[in-house]
Input
Amino acid sequence: MVADIAEKPAKRYPAAGMYSVLYDGQCEICQACVSWLRTIDHENNTTCLPIGDQVLSSMDSRLTMDECLRQLHVVTPGGEIRVGWDAITCLARLFPSTRLISALGQRFPFRNAGKLLYGFIAKNRYSLSKCRGGACRAAKPDKVRQQAKLGAFWSCYTLGFFIRLPLVLWSAIKAAEQRMSIFVRTYHKRFDLLNGRLVILFLNGMLPNAVPVLFGELFTAIIYDGIAIDPGSPKMRRSLARHLQQGNLKITKVVATHAHEEHVGNLNWLSEVTGTPLYASEMTAQFLTPFKKLPWVRATIIGQPPNLKPPYLLLGETVDTESGYLQVIPTPGHCDDHIVLYDPKEKLLLAGDAFMGSYFATPNPDVDSRKWLASLELLMELDIEILVEGHGHIHTLRADIPDFPGVVIREDPKVAISEKVNYLRWLREQIEAGFQEDLPVRVIEASCFPWGRRTSWETCATDECIRLLSLGHFSRTELVRSFVRKDADQLPTVYEVRMSGGE
Ligand SMILES: [Zn+2]
Output
């Protein structure tokens, strides 16, 4: 039980002069504590190592997998091994903000209370972490899985949440600040790039403004080499008209990437006022005639688009631009009718909503993540130097695109896409495993957002806010569902599901 397992010093340590903290990389509680430790350890006194056969054997022969999984182990720079509550007080001594915990924690009655509390958490943690794969492969998964109860899972997950809560709130404030700054800098702005061949028009509207302010999604119309793409919703029409009045915009065609309300509300209108032909894919045109009735939250904030009226043309495999052509590539996933436009000469991809950042956890109900993954794998085969998202963000390393913090993201587009591909593959694995083990959907959802992933707590407040304000329409739950959609499934909405009373 007590601190030192043995007296004799061990052979070698990977990090000289540092405290090595061995934690269970699969455990919510351990991960939460490690992220706190990293936050307060400004001077890099500690190094946190997830338990694994290799780590243990390279560090000290006295460390065993079973013991390390049971309790926290810390190896001091002097080669001593501290275990459990004593390991915690040993770490607490290192930092001014926690020194009091260390001083009290070594004395009666706090030491006894601390050990009791630590024992309780460690015991439940063990059953939790083992039920979710990973480190348990090294231990005895069957035995452990039997012990694992959902109650233990939820108590650990909830505890993990409360341990993170200050971090969640802090990052929510930071994110809100950043969103506000981007909103102000893009308000009614126009962004001319590549000698005017690429123009981003930022669209605003009284109620639509709530979206960029609360969630950071910007509304745009993109004009590339004469082609106006996705010109916004009816509630942004005045903003679009203002941009047109300012002149100096050459529009020769209007094209829709997919039938979502914030992209298609002004198709006929723009085509009429500019006297140019309108193009949509066959499926998009079908979705727009008539356009399904939106749930009231979306209709109120974004606006119900009018039905598509003829004349319009169906998109083929390419569409001609002023100086060349764009390839039209079907990319189902974000929704079934999605297409992207690709300029092979400029190596530029107009991605619409087929790419919405590498990490995106609150999809719409018509997302099919398996199809999305296949579409992204297809896009990985293209040579892309500039990636323009439908909501205004641009990923590029090219020097002829000037800096615009928060809008231009200095990152190789292929790296950004491959990160998303990896993330979706990981989710697929996690969700498939969950269903195979017959876990309830809520548990699978939670297991897709382990507190050990920075993005889980960083975007927690925003994601839950989106869930709340969209009445569950866009949510982390939809992310799980998006992996189990069958082709035969009608585009479901939360409302339909609620009315039929099913899961
Ligand atoms: Zn969309």
Confidence is low (pLDDT under 50) at residues 1-13, 129-139, 490-503. The first helix runs from residue 28 to 40. The radius of gyration is 27 Å. The pocket of zinc ion is lined by residues 258, 260, 334, 353 (CB under 6 Å).
